[in-house]
Amino acid sequence: MGRKWNNIKEKKASKDANTSRVYAKFGIEIYVAAKKGEPDPESNQALKFVLERAKTYNVPRAIIDRAIEKAKGNSEESYSELRYEGFGPNGTQIIVDTLTNNVNRTAADVRSAFNKAGGRMGVSGSVAYMFSPTAVIGVTGKTSEEVLELLMEAELDVRDIIEEDDETIIVYAEPDQLYAVQTAFKNAGITEFTVAEQTMLAQNYVTLSSDELPQFEKLIDALEDLEDVQHVYHNVEYPDGE
């Protein structure tokens, strides 16, 4: 795949310095997942996925428990999952996934963020076809050969296995393989993951000039700062060391 996940992860981490915002977004996501089925991760796969991802972001147990207890209660608060697509500087492609209890507010906020930062909203399907839904799982303490061997033993045929510069091994798999890959690692004694989530990876990445990059980052920051936005995906490759 030739895509450095840690490059994405580090950039995201720098924007997620406001941990209270990150925790609040996870609280909503956990609540929504818990309301979809039983509020028990052992019988609710969607909830299990969210909790696994929350663990990689060090979300406090209190946040998780509060969201699950809210789902168990009589709360009738409902959220809609909406996706917006658009373009940034130099035709860069952006996908914005939201969870909202006020569709009109969210649509207006996302459109405003695009417009103020020199981007523009696109119609549904104008960008998403250039991205691939992908499961990304990262581990340390194993070589790529060892990871390949244990996945083969589990009869899992994944898309790619990449060794990052920091010796993290990143596995790219089909979205529905996330749980199976994690289970294979856990059966091999690996219970800690640097990343474990379903994401959208661009099929082709672009590098912006030093003049274009600040405007693009302003747009991404504006989108990620919106309370209803859960995930922002794009096709910009950051140069190593940026």
UniProtKB/TrEMBL annotation:
Gene Ontology cellular component list: cytosol
Compartment annotation: Cytoplasm
For biological process, the GO terms are:
regulation of DNA-templated transcription
Q: What is its main location?
A: cytoplasm
Keywords noted in UniProt:
Cytoplasm, DNA-binding, Transcription, Transcription regulation
Q: Name one GO molecular function term.
A: DNA binding
Q: Which family does it belong to?
A: Belongs to the TACO1 family. YeeN subfamily.
What is the name listed in the Swiss-Prot or TrEMBL entry for this protein?
Answer: Probable transcriptional regulatory protein DL346_10840
